[in-house]
Amino acid sequence: MIGAGSIGGVVARALRDGTVPGATLSGVVDPAGATDLPLVSLDELLSTSDLIVEAAGQRALAEVGPQVLAAGRDLLVVSVGALADDALLDKLLSAGPGELHLSTGAIGGLDLLRAAARMAPLSRVTIETTKLAANLVQPWMSDEEAARLRTTAEPVELMRGPAREVTAAFPKSANVAASVALAVGDWDVVEAAVIADPAAELTSHVITADGPAGSYRFEIRNRPSPRTPTSSEVVPHAVLAAIAALAEPRVVFR
Q: Could you give the CA distance from residue 254 to residue 32 in angstroms, rounded to a whole number?
């Protein structure tokens, strides 16, 4: 594991406790120094692991991802939003011999979108993400904008536009937009929106798509992580499901 925060910590402890058949925890790289987990250096991790799970954020993925893959280790990416950077994606794809895997994170329906886009290009794809207003404050916002988010009594649409731009503007909240764009294989066809709602007890993602294969609508409503409300509580369990499928494949939908 790289990172042992609200996502990586749950994953690492589940692996440590033997809850994933066929997978064991070889170590954790964590600058914060989680005291109940086996902390190792990156070099040690690369020498003892078949699969490295990145759960430390976009900067960490850019810094260590190519090294992991070049060392022949497979890499499971949680910070999918970082792949809005085409240069980074190309660097990771060419860094092998390790294989690159992406976590589905907080959403579903990607397999059907991928199949529909393979049949014929989709003509329209949108993803609208709604989160608790106070959790969407960003460093680039002015003091006035941040204060408005923290005190608004009504839903506010913060941004709507190309998925690549929205992902860059909300790096901790728009991994889902990147996942949709990567699934359909076309960043330009995906429009994303981020909506702040002071009454949003659950984080929602509404995905719609149209194309020759049909019309689709998926709505996902997740409980936010109690430790890190910008992420959904289900995300580490999506990571664990991906690890389980890689470690001991049985009946797996791909």
A: 35
Question: Quick one: tokens of 5?
Answer: 């925060």
H-run or E-run covering 237: helix 235-247
Model confidence at 44, pLDDT cuts 50, 70, 90, reads very high
Report d(CA 244, CA 212) in Å as an integer. Answer: 34
Mean pLDDT of 73-84: 92
CA atoms within 13 A on the CB side of 198: 10
Main-chain dihedrals φ then ψ at residue 3, nearest 5 degrees: 100, 130
Instruction: Assess whether pLDDT exceeds 70 at residue 91.
Output: yes
- pLDDT (0 to 100) of residue 253: 60
| Nearest one of 48, 62, 53 to 30, comparing CA atoms | 53
* Active-site residue identified among 149, 193, 205, 239: 205
Note the pTM of the prediction, 2 decimals: 0.88
101 noted as active-site residue: no
